[in-house]
Amino acid sequence: MEKNVIVSDANGRRIGATYPKRARGLVKNGRAELISDHEIRLLLTQPPASFIDTEDSSMSKVIQFNTREFDFDESCQSNTGFRGFVTTALGNEEVWEIGDWGWNWTQLAAEIKNLEPNTDYVFRFAMTLGHNDDGREESLVHVHYSDGDAKQAWKDRFTYCIKMSRFKPILSKRDPDEDTMIRVFELPFNTGEHTSVRILIISQHAIARFSRARANEDYASLEDLSYEQWRARRTQTLAADALAREKAKADGNNSGVSMEDSIREMFENAMEDSRAEMADMLEDRIDEAINDSISEFFSEGMENFLATHSLALNDGTSITTKQRTKVLSPDKKKLLTCYGGLKVEDTTRWNGQIPKGWALAVQTRISSWESIYVYKTEKEATDALVAVNNAIKEGMSLIEL
Fold it and tell me: Rounded mean pLDDT of 228-253?
């Protein structure tokens, strides 16, 4: 039988774990109170050591996040972020702030040694930020042993998805200084026959801040705020911003400014700053103003408008919709419509269940890319890119790789 019932003291601090049958006995005998199906709290009249086995006791089996033990994982080539001190709602703290709003992966790693074999441990840390408006961020924590066969260790790893509320934190509070949450996680794992583990923290498409978690009571003065509550508030804010923009646009139209003139002005302003960054600028404006569903609507509306209009900027540049060419993968399993952009990427830098090799990525929307096939060599992927590019130039409606 597994020790899967959390035992906490009268102040709500986790001090160990026990068996379900033993937990029921403690509650029945008046030594503890039932908090949930998977947690009991000891009463003040009872010392913890009376009921919790030595191997499960108190903070000795809790691995606290230590900024000085973590560093960028050298196997990841797109790491971004820094370690430093910041002032938070609870005072000055040393943190790791990692990731960006793009699609680069960032990985923090630490090796924890001198652990006891066949023992339950908990990795405890606080996380701020780590989310964005479009809900496509990624936040993962992997824990695997590091003193054995590396391939088998990765297969046996513990993986926790800590984005949104997919793995529930032990507490979630509103950060009074920022439009975000402070969440404290406790991730359980067992050492098995090993005495050292490697902890890997991954962030993508969002900036995330990690620090040592304080005692639970230190967060008591902060307002409770779950991810669902934060998302509801954020959606309301974005909706209000979108309505304000629609009203401003309507007021502009009523004053004699046409939709075509408004779009032309927007393109001209972007082109004056940087032609190469025009698509990124449009995407940033959408992300800041409206939620994902409105964003999708806006993108489709823009494409439909460009499909029936040809805009001429002041410098003579003509903006028209691109020819759509459908691309069929070599294994006939994927059919994508190419918006125009193509690129080859080394998948060894990626994480997840992606074959190692060279991926041909297709631009399927203004700000969306998707891999259509992973080739074994860079030359094969590059040849495929050239073939698709030539098909687009020739106006072909379909190309089979």
Answer: 81
